[in-house]
Backbone:
């Protein structure tokens, strides 16, 4: 196990900067997830850590060693690829044992490591099959097994679940989490799926346009997003945003609704008059209390019953918002809805910078 | 709703086309009818000529004698066994195959690996691969006949620049044979390279990246990943190349005409000589049947190898 440090890490292709000077400290044994939309630089960063991409500037340290100039094989890392990258002509046993054979591990030791990893992943009965004879989920496990037998200092996962169907993705996700709990090795995991990030990570690194937008625990990024981007990216359904203006000590919405600043959480109460803001409200923070502290008046547009909840889409001053309501609640489409709101859960962002107003 | 949709789809799938229903054909009859044009064409251009060749090989049929064709049974084959030129040309053909096929494979593999490198501009590399392949065999033979010319040839000129005395390539059986083999390797390695290059491009890059992370160096990657995954492409290339090597004609014909003597003549040249020059169609057919059998044997062996690998 080892810590990983990224210092002013950059990657450019000519004038195009893909990764723009990332600084990040990953602790020994930590499970860190890089998440962000396509093109944000998350896979490139992972590949730079693996040594599969050269770095344009900055430094990568694994443990105490600067690894910038080391080949992938010298970095003591193992990687699980998006397409699994299993050798199609080798059996599962040969796939898992290849790195050990290359490194001159004795056959006896290699066999015991392969058996141990195969048992851990429940693929012991597949050892003599070739990848072409396996299902997607089984291939995924073999790819993980190949990484585990190496006993590396750091595991790197590059969108390993993206080729699986939704049900299998959920199962394998749980297995990856259990695996980390068992072996405790540092894991850096790349995904574009915020659910994977939230469920797996000790810390989430949210990337946007080659820069880190926010780093924090799943709770921190969910409950205290530092920008409109993070608020909108983390959580499903996404956080609602509505433009408002601070007038006479209250947030004034386009439809005339007002929320007094004094009702908001501490730190958000001293926003100067006249400032344009973006108000962020999570769908689950709309409430249907008999006597809510605050109410917003909205026209119901669409109702989506999900069984466990009902999603109600409504509009306020031209903005479409979503509320997560109890399952028994079925408002009429077109009706006026008086939605309660817990003002302490309201997020305020500056309309110009889209950064949080603390 | 879903069930009824499925039933409709099911019924639609089982229904033969309208025109087939009109003719009231069974599935089997329909299949035969649809395959008939292709079967007929193949019979006309492949099966009939081969059968006719075998048939003719049992006759004494020389157009120069003016005599009618006479059934002689296996006499042509018996003559062949006693014919030293047949053995010499067959041996030359086998030797050319044994030298030029592996030679073209090695050179072709090197060229394919070179062409697969991430050059900024790919087309000049690919074009230079295509040119020898696109060149007619007889042209290649003529060009290399000049290259190896004792007085004006570029080969002797290069040797002279290194202080090595030039040789008369086509006066010595072994040197003439070597010149022919080099020419064939040059001409055919680009075909090998193209097939291997196509195979190389089907190998996902992520396998090499995984091998990099696993700790394998470039040489190990070649033997552990590239070569095993290229096997299907290599076998296909070998089948084609071996069959065409067994039929070698144009290059030795243009370079040496089979000489000195018959030392560089191939079986195909001997067949040509008997049928076209001597107009002995019976004996020529018997020789052609042997060459056909040789090609078939090679194809069957390669296909067996592929099936075993599968």
Residues:
């Amino acid at each position: 196990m080892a810590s990983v440090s990224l210092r002013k890490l950059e990657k450019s292709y000519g004038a195009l900067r893909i990764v723009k000077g990332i600084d990040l400290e990953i602790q020994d044994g930590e499970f860190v997830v890089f998440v962000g939309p396509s093109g944000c630089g998350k896979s490139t960063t992972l590949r730079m850590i693996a040594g599969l991409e050269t770095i344009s500037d900055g430094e990568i340290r694994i443990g105490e060693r600067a690894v910038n100039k080391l080949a992938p094989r010298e970095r003591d890392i193992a990687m699980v690829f998006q397409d699994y990258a299993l050798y199609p002509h080798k059996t599962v046993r040969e796939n898992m044992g290849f790195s050990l054979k290359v490194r001159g591990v004795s056959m006896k030791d290699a066999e015991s490591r392969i058996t141990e990893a195969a048992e851990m992943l429940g693929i012991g009965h597949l050892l003599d099959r070739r990848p072409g004879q396996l299902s997607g989920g089984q291939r995924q496990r073999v790819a993980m097994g190949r990484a585990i037998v190496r006993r590396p200092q750091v595991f790197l996962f590059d969108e390993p679940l993206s080729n699986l169907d939704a049900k299998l993705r959920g199962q394998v996700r749980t297995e990856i989490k259990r695996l980390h709990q068992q072996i405790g090795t540092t894991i850096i995991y790349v995904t574009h799926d915020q659910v994977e990030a939230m469920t797996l990570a000790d810390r989430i690194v949210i990337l946007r346009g080659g820069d880190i937008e926010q780093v924090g625990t799943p709770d921190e990024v969910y409950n205290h997003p530092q920008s409109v981007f993070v608020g909108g990216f983390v959580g499903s359904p996404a956080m609602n945003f509505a433009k408002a203006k601070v007038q006479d000590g209250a947030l004034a919405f386009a439809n005339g609704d007002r929320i007094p600043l004094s009702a908001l959480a501490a730190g958000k109460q001293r926003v100067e008059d006249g400032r344009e803001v973006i108000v962020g409200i999570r769908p689950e923070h709309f409430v249907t209390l008999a006597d809510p502290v605050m109410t917003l008046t909205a026209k119901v547009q669409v109702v989506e019953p999900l069984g466990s909840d009902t999603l109600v889409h409504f509009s306020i001053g031209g903005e479409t918002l979503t509320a997560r309501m109890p399952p028994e609640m079925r408002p009429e489409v077109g009706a006026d809805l008086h939605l309660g709101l817990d003002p302490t859960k309201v997020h305020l962002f500056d309309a110009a910078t889209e950064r949080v107003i603390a | 709703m879903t069930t009824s949709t499925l039933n409709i789809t099911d019924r639609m799938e089982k229904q033969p086309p309208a025109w087939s229903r009109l003719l009231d054909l069974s599935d089997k009859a329909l299949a035969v009818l649809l395959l008939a044009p292709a079967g007929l064409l193949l019979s006309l251009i492949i099966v009939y000529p081969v059968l006719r060749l075998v048939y003719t090989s049992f006759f004494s049929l020389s157009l120069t004698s003016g005599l009618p064709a006479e059934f002689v049974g296996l006499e042509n084959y018996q003559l062949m066994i006693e014919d030293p030129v047949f053995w010499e040309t067959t041996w030359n053909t086998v030797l050319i195959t044994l030298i030029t096929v592996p030679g073209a494979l090695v050179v072709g593999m090197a060229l394919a690996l070179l062409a697969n490198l991430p050059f900024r501009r790919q087309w000049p590399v690919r074009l230079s691969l295509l040119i020898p392949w696109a060149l007619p065999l007889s042209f290649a033979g003529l060009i290399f006949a000049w290259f190896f010319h004792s007085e004006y040839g570029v080969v002797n000129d290069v040797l002279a620049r290194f202080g090595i005395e030039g040789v008369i390539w086509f006066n010595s059986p072994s040197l003439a044979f070597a010149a022919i083999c080099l020419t064939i390797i040059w001409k055919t390695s680009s075909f090998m390279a193209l097939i291997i290059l196509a195979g190389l491009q089907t190998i996902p890059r992520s396998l090499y990246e995984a091998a990099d992370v696993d700790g394998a160096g470039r040489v190990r990657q070649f033997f552990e990943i590239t070569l095993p995954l290229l096997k299907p492409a290599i076998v296909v290339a070998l089948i084609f190349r071996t069959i065409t090597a067994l039929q070698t004609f144009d290059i030795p014909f243009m370079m040496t005409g089979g000489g000195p003597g018959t030392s560089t003549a191939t079986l195909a040249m001997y067949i040509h000589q008997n049928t076209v020059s001597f107009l002995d169609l019976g004996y020529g057919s018997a020789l052609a049947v042997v060459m056909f059998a040789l090609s078939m044997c090679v194809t069957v062996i390669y296909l067996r190898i592929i099936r075993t690998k599968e």
About this structure: Chain A has a mean pLDDT of 90. DSSP finds eight helices and 20 strands in chain A. Chain A has two domains: 4-225, 240-350.
